[in-house]
Design brief:
The chain is of the alpha/beta class. 46% of the residues lie in helices and 8% in strands. The protein is built from 15 helices and eleven strands. The strands form three sheets. Strands 7-6-3-2-1-11 form a six-stranded parallel β-sheet. Strand 1, helix 2 and strand 2 form a beta-alpha-beta unit. Helix 11 crosses helix 12. It is globular, with a radius of gyration of 20 Å. 49% of the residues are buried.
């Protein structure tokens, strides 16, 4: 009985991906036998609007517990969903329009419309927005995925975007803590190193995340929508960066660093929300550390939810490695229970909405507004705000 309960405890801390457009047997097993916490979908999993809705519905039916159903839905070049989903420009373009129009409401509206379309097909989690500062023109992976090169602009606009998602029932996830904007390497391919002083990291990379914490504490909520009850905003989840910052920790990349995830994020910044890893199959981790042991280190360092986005072998190896540890170590079991409690605090919705919202005239008009002169764009946004 203990082993069965531990399997479900460990599985609940994992979010897995897979190949193909139908649920494979091993994912079915992970959901039913291990209580898998969530599934992340990619372009390779999606053929059409109808197929996607059916796939998410099938995943929901497999589970006897609330299941995270996630996707990277940023706009621009990180866009997994086919027509007729509304394709938005990259966040940098959105940021340019916000700045010209002096209208942060655009970011809220963007999150709101994205959320409506994601909810329509059963998603409840969006691994967005990129909360990095586009501070290095040589960066091969962030660039126009970030709102701005000005650290002071990024946090408030990400906060608006996250609130827009939440107003329609989608959990957003700010990434990549403590900042991936000043790397010259791609963490999908290798482990980048950011050689900045702690003071410079505090003023640039960490500024948007610090602002998110402050805005959450100060916010008077737009008290509408399924996740907008009374009280302060909940802590939005964060995703870690597979990046090394010697000034913060000379030994470990951020994803595996207790100095960064516990001492800095949990204690100094007083962040009490869910910490997702980035994908452990990325070379920034997997080329340097065995994946099961890296996942263990992530949990000890302060992380909560393990992402393994591709293959069955590292997924089952990680689950079994953590199970062996938990069977032997009561302190590790207690640690896992703390993380499960944090994840269970997320308010999940998995009810499919009306597919006619996807790519509707109103949403397409809003996306088109970012390619129009400021005056025309502003008029479209005002009309949409008045409707809502």
């Amino acid at each position: 009985m203990m082993t069965l309960n531990l399997k479900k405890l460990i599985g609940s801390l994992c979010v897995f991906g897979f190949e193909g457009t139908e649920t494979p047997k091993h994912i079915e097993s992970f959901i039913q036998d291990w209580n898998l916490g969530g599934v992340i979908l990619f372009k390779r999993n999606i053929e059409s609007l109808e197929q996607l809705a059916a796939l998410n519905q099938a995943l929901i039916k497999l589970s006897d517990h609330p299941l995270l159903l996630g996707v990277d839905h940023e706009g621009g070049r990180v866009f997994r969903l086919p027509a007729p989903f509304t394709h938005f420009p990259p966040l940098q373009k959105i940021g340019d329009c916000i700045r010209k129009q002096k209208n942060p409401q655009l970011a809220f509206q963007l999150g709101q419309i994205m959320a409506r379309e994601l909810c329509a097909v059963g998603f409840n989690l969006n691994f967005a927005p990129v909360t990095d500062v586009n501070s290095n023109p040589q960066n091969p992976i962030i660039g126009d995925r970030a709102f701005s090169a000005d650290a002071a602009e990024v946090g408030p606009w990400c906060h608006e975007f996250l609130q827009g998602l939440a107003s329609e029932g989608i959990i957003g996830c700010a990434k990549h803590f403590p900042g991936h904007g000043d790397t010259e390497q791609d963490s999908h391919l290798e482990l980048p190193v950011v050689n900045k002083t702690e003071a410079k990291l505090w003023d640039c990379e960490l500024r948007p995340f610090r602002d998110l914490m402050s805005l959450r504490a100060m916010s008077s909520l737009r008290r509408q929508g399924p996740m907008m009850g009374r009280g302060n905003l909940p802590f939005f989840p964060l995703m870690t960066a597979h990046v090394k910052y010697p000034a913060l920790d000379p030994d470990w990349p951020a994803t595996l660093s207790s100095k960064i995830l516990t001492d800095l994020l949990r204690k100094k910044l007083d962040y009490q929300g869910v910490i997702f890893s980035d994908d452990f199959e990325m070379k920034g981790i997997s080329a340097y550390y065995p994946i099961p042991e890296a996942a263990e280190q992530f949990l000890h360092a302060g992380g909560d939810a393990i992402l393994l986005c591709h293959h069955e072998e590292p997924q089952i190896n990680t689950l079994e490695h953590l199970l062996r540890l938990a069977e032997k170590n009561s302190q590790f079991r207690d640690l896992l229970s703390e993380k499960q409690a944090r994840l269970s605090s997320l308010s999940l919705q998995t009810v499919l909405a009306n597919l006619s919202q996807v790519g509707c005239k109103e949403h397409l008009s809003f996306a088109k507004s970012f390619r129009l002169p400021s005056a025309e764009s502003g008029a479209i946004v005002r009309n949409l705000v008045n409707k809502n």
